[in-house]
Design brief:
Layout: E1 11-12, H1 19-28, E2 34-37, E3 46-51, E4 58-63, E5 67-73, E6 77-84, E7 90-96, E8 106-107, H2 109-118, E9 121-127, H3 132-136, H4 138-147, E10 152-156, H5 162-172, E11 178-180, H6 183-187, E12 196-201, E13 204-205, E14 210-211, H7 216-228, H8 236-240, E15 247-250, E16 259-263, E17 274-279, E18 284-288, E19 293-297, E20 302-307, E21 312-313, E22 319-322, E23 326-330, H9 331-344, E24 348-352, E25 358-368, E26 373-381, E27 386-394, E28 400-405, E29 411-412, E30 430-434, E31 440-445, E32 454-460, E33 467-472, E34 481-482, E35 488-492, H10 500-505, H11 509-512, E36 515-519, E37 524-527, E38 542-543, E39 549-555, E40 558-564, H12 566-571
Length: about 575
Amino acid sequence: MLFVPSLAFAVNWPETPCKDTVRSQLKSWHTRATGSAIFPSKSYDLAYRFPTSTIGQWVDIEVSKKETLIKKYSRKRIQQVTINHNSCIPNVKNKSLGTISSSDNMFTDIDLEQLMKSQSSGLLYFWSPQMPLSLSSYKYFKWAADKLKIKVTTLLDPMANPEIAKRLARKHGLPLSKQVDSLELAFRNFQVHYPTMLYFSKGQFQDRVMGGARTKEEYENLLVSVVNGATRKPSSAQARSKPLNKIIQECPEDPSTYRKLIKIKDHYPDGIGYFQQPISPGRFISFNMSDHGAIFDLKKGISVSSIVYEPFPTPDGRFITSGSPLRFILVKDLVEHGKDEVEAKGRVYFQDRSMGGWYQSVGVVNEDTKNRIVTYRALTANSQGVMRDYKVKFTKDWIPLEFIPVQPKPIKLCKEQRRTRLGWPSFDFQMPIISKDGSELSTLSPSKSNPKQTMKFWKINPETGECTEAGDLGTKASKGNFSFDGRYFAFTTGDSSLDPERFNNDKDYLKNNYIYVFDRQTGISTRLAQNLKGHNVGFYPGFLPDDRVVYKAFIKGKLYIVIEDFKKMCQKK
């Protein structure tokens, strides 16, 4: 399976030296005019990626001071053209990839081309048996697609076990699906998440893939927006609905005084989308790419290290953790040495194979700075939903000496709440995240008083893993984030009932994904990201220790990290 950086179709052919030669080559390959910025390789400064008019053929452009390198990728070979900036003479090389076989159970570029020729429009739905939300939300996606009379083709994770997938597909009402083996879909980042959806019409793809599980209403809004180019307005009944037990506060119309924007370099892709987390005290951000994680240096404006998938920092900023199995790696090592050296020299300080699963998060239960001992509490969302504490002893320079698991084995979380199976198998919580002090967690979970899924807060019994409800956000939300003192909770949502005024007046509501900060003491939610005029304003906002909120935003096709001081902003209102 081929992984590539996330794509944001926001750039045209770059202005390069030897412009006429470069453009002549691009035209000869029928390269489309709109593409995206990607990571450059080591010897180059800028890099871009463009589709061509042929399914399964893509073009990369890399530019340095000395030369421009153009590559065309196809199933059978890579064509490479190097253009020296002094002579502007192209040097052509071809590299054969040999014969690549694919079984009848695989969905290839040939299948994709035939599908797009046989249907005037359609939707591709990518799922995996390892991602329960891609199974449970399919019925809602299919309902919305059927309502709009759009045909759906389901496609399976190429790494999935076919027999397990077949059994779960029958259980959840999915048709038999071929596994993806398509260069075109790989380059479009179709395999970045589960579920992922992609729309095509009249032989052309929608530029961006759509990721993430949704409700019926959210799927319908999304698909109407994709098909018609405008977000559906809510019905009159929906427009009259009141916010669910919350007051929405919008602090000044011009919050620029209390907001810092850090522009990400043009070559940087829009991979900062999944599980982005500021690393205390705030110089670095960990985030997810299509097949790995990275640490971004906000001061230098560059990515300083590639690391494991779905990286999540500890609140003290010392470790990055990864899931399946749970691993702890020093941030300092990754920044100074990089992933390869870290792994080669055994700098993964601890891993717990009994803590499987993804969506891990970690809190600091206790910190004894005098004796250099820190106790961490980790949560992973595997098929059981478990937690475990670790006592870590450090040197005077804060280098780990030993990891000691406190409990003999992981503790099952919230056993008494497991009434239904709406999310993870045998575990009705979805998108859990632990508080910074490890005393609470948040989940999407149903209750008897509110059968709809809403974000809930739970107090954890550290001895038994039992959970006591400690609050209800009252709306469906993405994987949110606790502030360091636990008072505030930052989240994004597509639930129009939370903020009907903004939903009615902003045609790009679902694209913008407004950020809200919920004050758990007052019940007031503050709307952030005002007047940015960007799209995909950012899933998974995070907090700095001083309660400033960190998120991403696309503004005029450029990617920014935004740091917003909502407390000062609202005090001045």
